[in-house]
Specification:
homodimer; mainly alpha; Arc Repressor Mutant, subunit A; Tetracycline Repressor, domain 2; 2 domains; 10 helices; DNA-binding
Amino acid sequence: MSDRVVPPAARQRRRPTKQGVVLSAELIVGTALRLIEEHGADALSVRRLGRALGADPSALYRYFRHTDDLMLAVADELIGRSLRSWRPTGDWAADLRDLGLRMHAGALAHPRAATLSAHRVTGRAHEIQAVESILGVLRRAGFPDAEAVRIYHAFVDQALAFGALDSAGTALPRAAREAEAEVWRTTYGRLPAETHPHIAATARHLVASMRTSSYPAALDLFLAAARTRLGQLRARTGDARPH
Amino acid sequence: MSDRVVPPAARQRRRPTKQGVVLSAELIVGTALRLIEEHGADALSVRRLGRALGADPSALYRYFRHTDDLMLAVADELIGRSLRSWRPTGDWAADLRDLGLRMHAGALAHPRAATLSAHRVTGRAHEIQAVESILGVLRRAGFPDAEAVRIYHAFVDQALAFGALDSAGTALPRAAREAEAEVWRTTYGRLPAETHPHIAATARHLVASMRTSSYPAALDLFLAAARTRLGQLRARTGDARPH
DNA sequence: ACCTTATGACAACACCGTTGACCTGTTAAG
DNA sequence: CTTAACAGGTCAACGGTGTTGTCATAAGGT
């Protein structure tokens, strides 16, 4: 039964659920997001979502072909929410930094959706808008086209990849997350200097650092490198604009 | 029943399964890896793994506390295989570059396993050795401890994150991968300059760039930034060693 | 007011991870 | 060489999951 899903435009009979809820794709996506935020990523199952909506689980299959389909819709909503309020200021590095942090934060807020969508090109409105914005920032900064694309690609992939990586961490069941912290504290924190001198020497820093995301640091390194690169390009072409 | 798992050293009675297989942690991990590669990440379940091994699913719980435990072992095995033949040369940047590319290649070689395991801290032998090696390279290069840890963290996460991102791409079903390329060629390749000037101006480069991984570029930017950082640190401390 | 049919509900299917109880072959001690 | 302990494989069950075939009914056009 593959034609169970009806395109939203063609939907006409708005019959309420037994419990009196009128379903819609938007309501389902919104409830899914709420469920994830309130009770963690593993709280999202078709059955629980149905329960939260006040509908039979199978009713959702009138709106989404399967769970992946639903998660992609959630992801799309996510892009929109993350970048809705972003505006370029003219300082290209600051703009990119802001964008990167927003994308990363958006991913962290909705881990399951992020891990699912990080590696997919949707070609939908929000995504196109983001691509255009980033390329604009880079070209206005003075990067020649080929270089702008190279930097754009690395920038976006880095944001997506770290977003997925870090949100996978937060999506772990609570027990597993605590186990990870424990591993750093006990296993790595107690290796003897004779066998593992470098870990032993930096154990204190390691334990502290591993509790937080390395994305801000990685992003800043990235921007620093891009700034240097731009300087080289300008020197070569005799352009002396400040950066 | 939490004391079901017996440490491998203490294991003595090697009783074969009904189907004549003698189990071991190594055999289980190896079979899991094979299963994932051959039939996709979804093919890995305790029950299927048991069937593939010729043992009752519950027998695996004598070797691993739960599925997560098993996945960590698989992840560690993956790290071990990727870095087995790496040797430091003394040129820290070249060494890191080599390491990063190996980790990335290792992830690509086992895409489905990589996507499952990239974000976990295993605390096992191979991982510990990798941490020690990377920290060693950085500290010998002259990075002070706090900085070495910061750079280590960003470096490792970048390699893992891009590894996961890129292998998620290659792990997609063929049809989905072709659809993605199609999106770039048609959707992005044909946006009019009036509405999307930056995409239109760089479309040619975009289509070409998106076909390949951005990790090498990102890695080189990372190393360039680290080199600059090291230079600043040396200038500040009056150290004039060459880089 | 009637008919069509979209849409929600129900029940069932085939899986999943995990555990407690059981059974038996291996091994070490006598 | 026998025997008793127990490690380790097996079985059955629990409560969960996504998904689908079928049915009932209320909404909306006529």
